[in-house]
Design goal:
Layout: E1 2-3, H1 14-30, E2 35-38, E3 44-49, E4 53-59, E5 64-70, E6 72-77, E7 80-84, E8 88-92, E9 97-104, E10 111-117, H2 120-129, E11 157-158, H3 161-173, H4 177-211, H5 216-226, H6 234-240, H7 245-256, H8 260-278, H9 283-289, H10 295-306, H11 310-317, H12 325-329
Parallel strand pairs: 1-7
Antiparallel strand pairs: 2-3, 3-10, 4-9, 5-8, 5-10, 6-7, 6-9, 8-11
Length: 335
Amino acid sequence: MAQAADGPRTELYADERLRAGDLIAELKARAVTIGPNVTQWPGLTVYRFESPVAPQRSEVQSLSLCVVAQGRKAVVIDDVSYRYDPFNYLILNRGLRFEAEILQASREMPFLSLVLQIDPALVQRISADMRDGAATAFRRPQSRAALPHRPAPARVCSLDTDTCGAVLRFLRAATTGPDRRVLAPVYLQEIVYRVLRAGQRQRLLDAAASETSSNPVTQVIAYVRSHLSEPLTVADLADRACLSPSAFAHLFRDVSGMSPYQFIKSIRLDRARELLVAGDLNVSEVARTVGYPSPSHFINEFKRLYGVTPRVYADAQRGVIPLRMDLATGRPGGG
């Protein structure tokens, strides 16, 4: 199943063509190497690829805006394929696991995109300032029946002229000291405002609410990431969240889209994948590092998810330029 951008047009007006060319030029100037390029602005990563890239699994570490300016990309989330072409974007929330593939890229017309982290508090503040609705605050559900219907995990939207202009102004301001300190934060607010106005309001608010410090699942997820080598049970994690195991499991699924057990296994195997490709540890050492006392159990679980044994996967992935969405969406400074 595939989803395209809302209402694509085959032609652009003159001012839109101007901004389209400007945005491509700005990204090309910042993407000096193949793969992800870290910029001077914490939380902004620019991508450049000169050939298609095979599907890679990744995970979003923080609420992020992903914009394609040139080339084509596909993202598969929960078996749904979201394809986006130039001047379309996706909002991706923290904890979202997906498979990404660069479909169209060449040396003459490189794939160019940006990933920009968005502070959830900024989303909530701007939404409240818009006066046409209060920001969504996190509330602990009273029962499973009270949980809201979980929306589709992503939606492709067109980058309209106003939003494109805000992105351009932000990129230009983020390159020099005084402008970066004074103007870039203002243009970042405008980007969030434009996206909220463009039909992504509830999705942004829901994603922002799931990341706030008042959400106990946020702290549990951080704990899981830093204690993968240790035994992790639903009961222990529920105790950390000060909830019963049943209430915690329901809340966790509502926020993350999967059960705590599924999440832990997914995180462990994804970390194992990274360690295997790095090549510093053998299979048994990787298994222990991510919390599998039995190498055979680890190999079976890995093969069930990735379709091949850990060793075969590592050999096949070495030399492939990683998309590193975890790096692009990770908190600046590792937080």
